[in-house]
Write a structure and sequence with these properties.
Layout (H helix, E strand, L loop, with lengths): L11 H4 L10 E3 L2 E3 L1 H8 L5 H24 L7 H13 L5 H14 L5 H8 L1 H22 L1 H9 L2 H12 L5 H16 L6 H21 L3 H15 L1 H13 L1 H21 L5 E4 L4 H11 L11 E6 L2 H14 L1 E9 L12 E7 L2 E9 H9 L12 H6 L11 H15 L28 E5 L5 E5 L4 H8 L1 H5 L1 E6 L2 E3 L11 E5 L20 H13 L2 H18 L21 H10 L4 H11 L17 H10 L1 E3 L7 E3 L11 E5 L5 E5 L3 H9 L4 E6 L7 E10 L4 H11 L3 E9 L4 E10 L2 H13 L3 E7 L5
Parallel strand pairs: 4-7, 14-16
Antiparallel strand pairs: 1-2, 3-4, 5-6, 6-7, 8-9, 10-11, 10-12, 13-17, 15-16, 15-17, 18-20, 18-21, 19-20
Helix pairs in contact: 2-3, 3-4, 3-5, 4-5, 4-10, 5-7, 5-10, 6-7, 7-9, 7-10, 10-11, 10-12, 11-12, 12-13, 13-15, 23-24, 25-29
Family: Belongs to the relA/spoT family.
Function: In eubacteria ppGpp (guanosine 3'-diphosphate 5'-diphosphate) is a mediator of the stringent response that coordinates a variety of cellular activities in response to changes in nutritional abundance.
GO biological process, one term: guanosine tetraphosphate metabolic process
Length: 787
């Protein structure tokens, strides 16, 4: 059975020195820690190998802290004291040895006395992962603590914002042990606040009372919850704390005598009924008293549960039998009964609560089984199973299960499920040690866990799906913020609008009234937006533009894209593609480009398809040629020449046509047929000179190899520019044949690249992605003689 310090509210100052004892081998400052004695006590519940590992961790931390104290000018490290203190807190929660070792090492890793690499090498990857995740949670905790705006949420119990804080903290891990280590760290920290500045005391205490105590409550860990609440309350409201503590102390002897008498009466009555039970007095905690007095507007003397008994029995039927005994012994106070066995609390708490009049004084009686009591004190920790072969597991004859840790997510999902069952079922009496009608429930709505949590410029926490971009964030804040967004800063640094946010980052959106959304934002492959919310807002904005304006914008969008690809607009008749997009006309395609119903990528793909012969149309088949070079060229480029066999082909370098563009051939004197873009100026000049050399040509198939094109990029020169651009190109599996860069005196870099692409659609997508990169002014295809 779990034993706790029942007198903690009245002996808070002594509670923080539970480990301090006589002389020992390890020393920190003026405090000596009896590590050998501590480990000897733990040997009753841990295996010999676990004790050896804990001892190794303590020796390593002690050694590093000692060396730091002699080599550093600044204040000596408290890592050893804190690490052992955290581990001692966790021993009472029956956690496994990995958690204890991680707790001992955590502070030393945080202070850079020990590296994570060392931890992994010496103690293994599991302990390393626990410390890494706890550090991540601690980093977020520090961000929250430094955020002045959040103090308003703490003081005013703003449910929405506080819920975001909890979710942000939990997002760094799926392992409940990480949260337990962090709870132990905060418990140790709040115990050590006595000598801190008043400002520091209040800030940490507010964080404890608003974040970590409720988190301990939701995990069902009453031991930590009560201690965190009472110590934090003492620092936040010292006068009220002292007032209630004084009220508890004034009639302590009288109350203790009363409890002793009632305990004996109930114990004897239960024994007469053949019920084996343990009856003890129960101390009400100071913050719980304050909360109930405030929420119910009661005076201290009006509270039912200042005097309370706890009854522990062996089985559930005996709980109800013991309840009947209590009600026979004393008169039951009407409406003061709760059955949390039949209807457990949201955090899994089970017990029977009743209030009676015993010798004309109200007395609360709680009745539960031994297992229920352990669960009430340890919460989720009560469900940890010892590893197979541990001394405690063998000694107690427990059934040894595989050591599978419960993830915090499943704990919280179970909490939400239980919470939903309890909605609308609260009884008239909520006089239990955890309930407060005015208490917020910030862990009430967890939702999906594939989320990120970021700070706004003003310090509010926003929840977004994983991989959400800064533009998604802008639309999450407000539709108009998204519509007029032109730039963004993350952690004070400018980032592209496609930047994927990470938990804990602070985001600032820059807007201008004359800026409107870009149609590129709707192109999936460009990665501007992730959320359906942002996409819907964008499409709505574009649909609200009048038809004539949409036609104008759509035409400008298409012309710009064709110019970037070096395609003459007259070579494209949109009416030819209306059927493919299930619209009536080419104008509908232009409007679809604006509203996002049709993407440029889709249109370029259709252009490619239209240039290929239809399956039902007889194809011009070239006979086998004796010219190996001509055959290879034909296969590579997939081109049909009308009326010519055994011909050698080459792509004209003046225009370098790409699969999908209209093409034509010109018979040269020595190099066979040169293939030109139908709108190539050079081709136009040649056929004026000799029209008989012109031959019809078309695309027979998708080329089996890449087609060489030249692109030109204009950008502000900066460190890493070429590296960033080549990374974008390689990510689309495009080969780079040649790169030439010229930087002008004004800092503008002109880069010419010769690359291999598979067609217009791929080239279009690449140019659009290149223009997204920071500092890029333009990216376009380069064709000699074509603008």
């Amino acid at each position: 059975m779990v034993r706790i310090r029942e007198d903690l509210p009245l002996r808070m100052d002594e509670a923080s020195r539970a480990l301090v004892s006589g002389a020992g081998p390890a020393v920190y400052g003026e405090v000596e820690l009896d590590i050998e004695g501590w480990l000897k006590r733990l040997s009753k519940q841990l295996s010999k190998s676990a004790i050896r590992q804990l001892h190794q961790a303590c020796e390593l931390v002690a050694s590093r802290a000692f060396n730091a104290a002699h080599t550093r000018i600044e204040q000596r490290s408290n890592a050893y004291h804190a690490g052992v203190g955290m581990a001692d807190i966790l021993t009472h929660l029956r956690v496994d040895e990995e958690t204890l070792v991680a707790a001992v090492l955590f502070r030393s890793v945080r202070e850079n006395l020990i590296t994570l690499e060392e931890v992994g090498t010496v103690f293994g990857p599991d302990i390393q992962a626990l410390i890494r995740s706890t550090l991540a949670m601690g980093g977020l905790s520090e961000l929250i603590e430094r955020n002045r705006r959040l103090e308003d949420h703490f003081e005013n119990n703003q449910r929405e914002h506080l819920s975001g804080i909890y979710k942000m903290l939990i997002s760094v891990t799926e392992d409940v042990r990480v949260v337990l280590i962090k709870l132990a760290e905060r418990t140790f920290a709040v115990r050590e606040l006595a000598n801190a500045s008043r400002e520091r005391q209040e800030r940490v205490a507010r964080e404890i009372l608003t974040i970590y105590a409720p988190l301990a409550h939701r995990l069902g860990i009453a031991q930590l919850k009560w201690e965190l609440e009472d110590i934090a309350f003492r620092f936040l409201s010292p006068e009220r704390y002292k007032e209630i503590a004084t009220l508890l102390s004034e009639k302590r002897l009288e109350r203790e005598q009363y409890i002793q008498n009632m305990t004996k009466r109930l114990q004897d009555a239960l024994a007469e009924q053949g019920i084996k039970a343990e009856v003890t007095g129960r101390v009400k905690h100071i913050y719980s008293i304050y909360r109930k007095m405030k929420s119910k507007q009661l005076s201290f003397d009006q509270l039912y549960d200042i005097r309370a008994l706890r009854v522990l029995v062996d089985s559930v039927p005996e709980c109800y039998h013991a309840l009947g005994v209590a009600h026979q012994l004393w008169r039951h106070i009407p409406d003061q009964f709760d059955d949390y066995i039949t209807n457990p609390k949201a955090n899994g708490y089970r017990s029977l609560h009743t209030a009676v009049l015993a010798e004309n004084k109200s007395l609360e009686v709680q009745i539960r089984t031994m297992d229920m009591h352990n669960e009430a004190e340890l919460g989720v920790c009560a469900h940890f199973n010892y590893k197979e072969g541990t001394k405690a597991g063998k000694k107690n004859g427990d059934i040894v299960f595989d050591h599978k840790l419960h993830s915090l997510r499943s704990v919280l999902e179970n909490y939400q499920e239980n919470k939903n069952k309890q909605d609308g079922k609260k009884s008239k009496n909520q006089d239990d040690p955890d309930f407060d009608e005015g208490e917020i429930d910030p862990l009430n709505d967890w939702g999906e866990f594939e989320k990120i949590y970021v700070f706004s410029r003003d310090g509010d926490i926003k929840e977004l799906p994983k991989d959400a971009t800064v533009l998604d964030f802008a639309y999450h804040v407000h539709t108009q913020v998204g519509n007029h967004c032109y730039a963004a800063r993350v952690n004070q640094r400018f980032v592209p609008l496609t930047y994927k946010l990470k938990t804990g980052e602070q985001v600032e959106i820059l807007t201008k009234k004359d800026r409107d959304p870009s149609r590129d934002w709707l192109v999936n492959s460009l990665g501007y937006i992730k959320t359906a919310h942002a996409r819907d807002k964008l499409r709505y904005w574009f649909r609200q533009q009048d038809r004539s304006k949409n036609l104008e914008i759509g035409r400008e969008t298409l012309v710009k894209e064709l110019a970037r690809l070096a395609i003459h607009p007259k070579s494209i008749d949109l009416a030819d593609y209306a059927k493919a997009f299930n619209v009536k006309s080419g104008d509908d395609i232009l409007i679809g480009l604006v509203t996002g119903d049709i993407s440029l990528h889709q249109l370029m793909n259709q252009i490619n398809k239209q240039m290929q012969p239809d399956e039902d149309t007889p194809e011009l088949v070239l006979k086998p040629t004796l010219n190996a070079r001509a055959s290879r060229t034909l296969s590579q480029h997939g081109i049909l020449i009308d009326g010519l066999d055994n011909v050698e082909l080459h792509v004209a370098q003046c225009c370098q046509p790409v699969h999908g563009e209209p093409i034509a051939g010109y018979i040269t004197q020595h190099r066979g047929v040169s293939i030109h873009n139908l709108n190539c100026p050079e081709y136009g000049r040649l056929i004026v000179q000799d029209a008989d050399r012109a031959v019809e040509a078309g695309w027979e198939m998708q080329p089996t190899s890449g087609q060489v094109v030249q692109i030109v990029i204009e950008a502000y020169d900066r460190r890493g520019l070429l590296k960033d651009l080549t990374a974008v190109i390689f990510s689309d599996q495009i080969n780079i044949q040649q790169v030439n860069t010229i930087t002008e005196s004004n800092g503008i870099a002109n880069m010419k690249l010769q690359i291999e692409v598979k067609g217009l659609a791929q080239l279009s997508r690449l140019l659009a992605r290149l223009e997204q990169q920071p500092g890029i002014m333009s990216a376009r295809r380069l064709v000699v003689g074509m603008k």
